[in-house]
Queue: 2 jobs
Job 1
Amino acid sequence: MLNLTDSTTAVAPDTAAAAFEPRIVAFVCKWCTYAGADLAGTSRMVYPPNVRTLMLPCTGRIDTSFVLRAFLQGADGVLVSGCHPGDCHYTAGNFRARRRWTLFRDLLDVIGFDLNRLEIAWVSAAEGAKWVKIITEFTEKIRNLGPYHDMRRVASDHVPPIAPPAGGHGTVVSRDRQGAEARARPQLHADRHVAGGGNGRVRAPAQLTEAATEALRGGKVNVILGWVRNRTLGQARPTWIAQPEAAADLVAPGDAGNLARLLKRPEVRALLPAGIVARAAEVMALNVLAQEAQLDPAKVFLFVVAPDGRYLGLMDLAEATERVVADNVKGLDDDRPAGFSDETLAALDELMARLPRDRWQFWAAQFEKCIKCYACRGSCPLCDCETCFADRNQPQWFPTGSDGPGNLGWHVIRAFHLAGRCVGCGACQEACPAGIPLNLMGAALSRSALRHFGHRAGVSSRGVPLQSDYRTEDGEAFIL
Ligand code: FES
């Protein structure tokens, strides 16, 4: 079995092109493709020895991060293979995987990844000959393409982790444990707003202030997420208030950010039911959270604000969706995801008109600026895993440093975790101190979800989340 942590294979210098032997990693399902490969062996069929096969229980278990990791560890090509549709040992693992690979390939395309190096195939236990044909042709294709220099350059920009102290890890505390301990500690309410700060920004409409005061005083909600003036910068800053008197300090919503992100905070969740000053971006994010059963819509009340700043009233999620989201969606053409600005979509079109190599260089320059501050994660209302994949160190799937592999892995996998969920609010991009246009990846994935599956994130709280759902007739033109 390939040792994916073997640093000696990760960035080995290329030998002469003539001597190039492709390194191919195959992630295969145990029940069909592995058995098919086994059949090829026991039948004494011959195929190139370049493939290193990793067996997993099902294609549904083959995480997209495995593929990226394989490339960063020095693979020149990756094959993913499993049971034919309808034959999955777990009924629908391959149907769900097919959706994931459709979206992930489109994301890779946006960043200029060479899609010739990623092959996906259905190979049954009886198809030893098909396995041989696929491996033979794929090896030849990669041999002609040569080493994946672009990826190796990224991989070589790796800052090795600090070695543990002699004698083992000693008292080093894992991030998982640190997180658990932090959650157990009393929260300091650092962002909580107390009345009396005054403000120089445009005050919230009087009806909103009155409705917020009334809702807190009458006990309809225990807390309201809204905007108050940042005393240092004079701008609107998101916060939450729990005292009726503090409602007087509410100001008109800021231009950026998404208040729904505050619902991630345990101290806010402990105070539900909550009110939230909601523009379309907040309404859409709440719809996604409700669709994923991460939020009980009965426990949020929306103080809805129109795009022109008018206060539209206190509503439940369904009514707010009807008032500020539904009409916008009706007017959209079939290729336009909801929530994204004209500028973002035009920038995406401009990016996709470039050659893949140019796109790769564009993103390489962008990712190089990342300092791994995780402001994108913190500002996103939907980046809400209790322990983010980037913080897991047992196992640690990606380097946590702000180096080549760490930044590529972080941005690609994070974007993918938002596939079919991102509502285009642009909070991540606004929060990024390096100015990385993160919303472009969200827009690309949202367009992919719309083109392939007719899915628009955030326009309804009903239905099944995109990546949890499948249709037997989902397209698979890219699968062998
Ligand atoms: Fe083979 Fe699910 S068991 S794809």
Note: Residues 1-13, 168-192, 194-199 have pLDDT under 50 and may be disordered.
Job 2
Amino acid sequence: MVDKAKIYQIPGLEDGRKADEPCTIVIFGASGDLTVRKLIPALYHLYIDGQMPESFRVVGFARRKKTDESWREEMRAGIEKYSRTCNVNDSQWQSFSENLCYHCGDLTDAVAYDALAGRLAKFGDSQLSRNLVFYLAISPSLFGEVVDQLHTNKLLKRYEEGAAQWQRVVVEKPFGHDLKSAQLLNNHLIRHARERQVFRIDHYLGKETVQNIMMFRFSNAIFEQLWNREAIDHIQITVSEDIGVGSRGGYFEEVGTLRDMMQNHLLQIMSLVAMEPPPSLEAEDIRNEKVKLLKSIRKMTPEMVSKNVVRGQYFAGTVNEDARNGYRQEERVDPESNIETFVAMKLFVDNWRWSDVPFYLRTGKNLPHRASEVRVQFRPTPNVLFAAQDNLDLHANALTLRLQPDEGISLRFNGKVPGNSIQTRPVRMNFGYDAEFGAYTPEAYERLLLEAMAGDATLFIRRDEVETAWQIVDSIREGWGEIPLSNREFYAAGTWGPVAADDLLKVDNHLWHTPVPANK
Ligand code: BG6
């Protein structure tokens, strides 16, 4: 049983969360980027922070021929290059890496799974060989095959609540490319595992500040009382990236920003911002509320899509003085591609709390800088007292939850400028995580791996969440149909997206809030 009391402590404090039961993590796709850049660095940091179980193993499963030793060396180099500390301590590495081994095999070859079963059995500890986290860092087209093979080799079975030993399957996005494919994928995944054994990752949920959205809302009476249509004019969610598609042109041609970012990260943030308070902090209660919220998002007809959704694609430009190619010139991209690298949209939540409050979401590649934030714009005061004042700079209150980088929260209100006039100016109250808690910035994957080992699914996406999000996204894609991008939908790299995205707000007399660059 998960100890909920521990989860919501401030991480990094002495009595922080720890995975208690011995277990083995088998990573499928051990030669891939995710393993070397994120998974092993996360496990290493959990280890040095004392959060791994006393006894654990990590088995890297992949096709390329490698020895335990050569794989460990690669992983060490990965930590030095990509991890948040870029630093490996020799003696800590020595004791950590003794638990790492490499298993060479083809994902479609039954013999490789038989050998894996033999290897796990040799760990000589029933918990290490039976408490298993299977991490599928591989193409979703192979998920079904791997799960079938694991089942055939008796490595994965449906288990009852409270069983002495457990197996879990952790899967990476994308979960399908539309509702239908997601349903097929989910059906396949749960053929040999119960839903509660499946942990679908959205790495945004592992980010400290994304987790804090819920804590902030439900532990602060002054804000929660205002968190509704009476006080809030609209909400903006921006996730901007200052990188282009880089070497992922091939992937992006299949996916586009709507499916890559909106379907998951932005809709997840929105559901945390807008959901009703759950009856408890249990995973199912929280996820029920998120699903309810997603289901309340107004469905869009093609006509509504043309009014409420803007897509864009970057052309050549400059980001931070760095010249960038246009999307159509990127590697493995069709020179006439109509794939979107930017999406902005206006959504409505048809429930009691949010009726008629617009939620504006936007995300894109090659924007001026990297920043993710939720901006809650409150209603203005009645225009009575100050109506006669010329040049009065009166702003509506706004609350900004800054998710990354420079994580923090700021509240804007009006202050009187000192002096004889009654001039006002917007001022801010700022809270910065670093200043308050020190530079504790665990990677999202640390938290997610820890939770998968501890068996808490709160930060993972349930089947109905994924499928409901696909319904929203599918209706938008249906609205776009085969219509090519128009001139108004292109934007120069290094700008905040196409003009049409500004117009989306202008018609409502709103403006996008421009996130401040890091450390300014
Ligand atoms: C991934 C997307 O899920 O999130 C990428 O596939 C994107 O396209 C990335 O760049 C952004 O994540 P982060 O943590 O850098 O904001």
Note: The chain has a mean pLDDT of 92.
